[in-house]
Specification:
The complex is a heterodimer of chains A (135) and B (296). With 135 residues, chain A is mainly α. Helix content of chain A is 53%, strand content 0%. Chain B folds into two domains: 3-121, Glutathione S-transferase Yfyf (Class Pi), Chain A, domain 2 (Up-down Bundle), CATH 1.20.1050; 137-287, Rossmann fold. The chains are: A mainly alpha (135), B alpha/beta (296).
Amino acid sequence: MPVNISKSGSDEKLRQRVKDISGQNFQKCFQCGTCSGSCPMTEHLNVFPRRVMALLQLGDRAALEEANTPWICASCHVCMVRCPRGIDIPKVMEAVRQLKLRQNINRIEPSQMDKKEIEKLPQIAMVSGFRKLTS
Amino acid sequence: MKIAYYPGCTLKTKARNLETSALACLDILGVEYEELPRWNCCGAVFSLADDDLIHMIAPVRDLIRVKEQGQDTVLALCSMCYNTLARANDLMKNNEEKRDTINRFMDEEPDYFGDVRVVHFLDYIRDDIGWDKVKEKVSNPLNGVKVAPYYGCTLLRPGEVAIDRPDKPGVFEECMNALGAEIIRFPMSAQCCGTYQVLGNPEAALKVSFDIIKDASSHGAEAMVLTCPLCDYNLGRRQDEMIEKYEGAAEFPLFYFTQLMALALGASPDVCHFELNRDITMEFLKNKNLMAKVPA
């Protein structure tokens, strides 16, 4: 996947928004890939967490929007516990989710859920799922 | 002094087997507790957005209720509730700016400073009761039961609310050991089951859950114990889907650890509500002669 590294292609607003919402400085990431190696969801990701950090550093909004990473992240915090740079990566993923959710764009539609499924699911699944994936 | 007990929403319905078995254990161990009156849902997940304080209100209200009834410790059974309450408490204790904003927003409530102690059942028993006391009370030891303790995420991460070392925990093993079980350690014992992704990406959650079961089973475990109703759903209730989808998948008995603890401590099996578990758990208990030894 080609990466645009020109200064004019860097979306400063995106970088600042993610920093503000996450409270994290993703510039500290030195691309060691420990997060990608630790993530239990890697086989389902089209962009690994290490690369998400790189895309943020570059301010590459278009590539970031293609990434399913923040939407498959389960906030399990393994990457955060192991990050040698002390970056709270789940907070960064949350910020990227919030960019969409705060525009009232839902990732899942509760009204479309299967009724039988809803009856079976424990309450904490619904509460946490809606908190993370709906606006 | 009595401790406060916070059940959370799932323990009153889908995970009654966790609540009633755990409370029976507390009774046998002589722990005095009182369910929080007027508790509300904690929100299930701690808000990770730095500028989002509104989602702190629910867990902080619960913590204020603890103080209101004159108690200084609150015990949770569900790992997600534990994590959310403990992290909110941590924030109120250590982040002066956010604490002030939250306190000012909730002007109908007394100010709160994070001075309640939030514990999970496991670390409370370890630190305040002790495994020796548990051993003394065991009347129906789990001898010959090869059990794999599964921590999941929220008891161990992030580090500031971990009930044990996040990289090398032992509290769950110590607990099952005190009950006489044979402990099976397995590499994926603290790997995520996919949690709420059962809504967003059910296939991904199913695969990671299957990997965890397979890992425990291949290390020689005959059963798994856990403490989170969402892990129980992903790893247990979705086994039918695993069997349909993955080669080599088979029924695997899963328990809330408090169910086996209640049996070991001689409580009536009725408090364990095994009817809410998969059928194979009952077969497993009969094969291991764990039901027979319990006095009627």
